[in-house]
Specification:
This protein has about 170 residues and is of the alpha+beta class. The chain is built from seven helices and nine strands. Strands 3, 4, 5, 6, 7 and 8 form a six-stranded mixed beta sheet that branches. Strands 1-9-2 form a three-stranded antiparallel beta sheet. Strand 4, helix 3 and strand 5 form a beta-alpha-beta unit.
Amino acid sequence: MLADLHRDGVDIAIRHGLGRYPGLVSTLLMAPALIPVASPDLLARGPRIDTPSDCLLYPLLQDSARADWPLWLEAVDDVADERAVRGQAFDDDYLLLRAAEAGQGLALVRDVHAESEIASGRLVHAIDRPWPGAFAYYAVTRPDSAERHAVRAFIQWAGDEASSGC
């Protein structure tokens, strides 16, 4: 449930959305991008990926709504393909990442969720075609709170943490 900043007297809320909150001041904190990742072994054994459509040659690991792969393919390659919704679906990005690590297929995940797996080499970019999602994370305040030093300091800290990968 969203806090009603005016009614509840809340100074700051973190919201995930488009940043349009009438009557409130919103500050962008972080806009994760969707990236296709896979285990290095899976990619070494499979066909080469030169274009986003080549991802369809692999098993696709899906978000629970099966929406990310079709949206990503249309956004980065202008491709609409019914094969983009096939594959095992997961309710949780953690499980999606573990399945990709285990070599079960390609996963399309938010870049911030896969940072440690990529840094350690457990996962690699299947193709370097990040796609900014429409939704981002915002700090939201009432206009009368936005100018308070403590509120500005917290928002600055939260933005710094978000940009450093926490």
